[in-house]
């Protein structure tokens, strides 16, 4: 099969192109990347980073915001441990309030198992019960998992979906009672 024509040719260096100017203009245009949407919406591009953060009530440098008190001598302790910052005007307090509210929300469980793994575990439990050696010899054990690996997968399923697992075991017991 023939090669693509443009790929094998050597790229020529352009001596007339000023790369320094291109690099500087690209750096100048780039705005700071802001991950938090609350900060992004309240950001003023005409102000500096320090001014924007001060308006929102946030600190640019945490070491300067809450300094560690120095002890004057090793044996003596300071009389007051409280640190009183200078009064700063917070022009955009809603940003801080929204961030605190978002941080107080409970964290969602994002851990889920694949549908294939759930079906595999349910099939193994349904056909073999707690016999892991028999599960390892099953024809549906495509990845040739050892009995310990299968046991680990079942335990992961138990931990991720405890209610579903209990319902599944109860339905299996009900089927056995119906058969007898």
From TrEMBL:
Similarity section: Belongs to the NOP16 family.
Primary subcellular site in the record, as a coarse category: nucleus
UniProt entry tagged with the keyword Nucleus: yes
Designated gene of the protein: Nop16
Keyword list, A-Z: Nucleus
Coiled coil ranges: none
Listed Pfam families: Nop16 (PF09420)
GO biological-process terms attached to the record: ribosomal large subunit biogenesis
GO cellular component, as recorded: nucleolus
InterPro entries named among the record's database cross-references: Ribosome_biogenesis_Nop16 (IPR019002)
Organism taxonomic ancestry: Eukaryota, Metazoa, Chordata, Craniata, Vertebrata
Organism this protein belongs to: Heliornis fulica (sungrebe)
Name of the molecule in the record: Nucleolar protein 16
Subcellular compartments: Nucleus, Nucleolus
């Amino acid at each position: 099969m023939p090669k693509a024509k443009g790929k094998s040719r050597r790229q020529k260096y352009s001596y007339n192109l000023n790369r320094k100017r291109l690099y500087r203009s690209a750096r100048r245009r780039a705005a700071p990347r802001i991950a938090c949407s609350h900060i992004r919406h309240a950001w003023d591009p005409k102000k500096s980073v320090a001014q924007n953060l001060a308006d929102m009530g946030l600190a640019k440098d945490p070491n300067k915001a809450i300094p560690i008190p120095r002890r004057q001598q090793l044996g003596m302790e300071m009389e007051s441990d409280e640190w009183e910052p200078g009064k700063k005007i917070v022009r955009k307090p809603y940003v801080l309030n929204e961030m605190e509210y978002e941080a107080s929300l409970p964290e969602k469980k994002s851990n889920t198992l694949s549908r294939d793994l759930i079906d595999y575990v349910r099939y193994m439990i349904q056909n073999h019960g707690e016999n892991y050696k028999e599960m390892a010899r099953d024809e549906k054990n495509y990845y040739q998992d050892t009995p310990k690996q299968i046991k680990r997968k079942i335990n992961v399923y138990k931990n991720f979906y405890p209610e579903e697992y209990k319902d599944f075991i109860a339905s299996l017991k009900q089927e056995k009672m119906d058969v007898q």
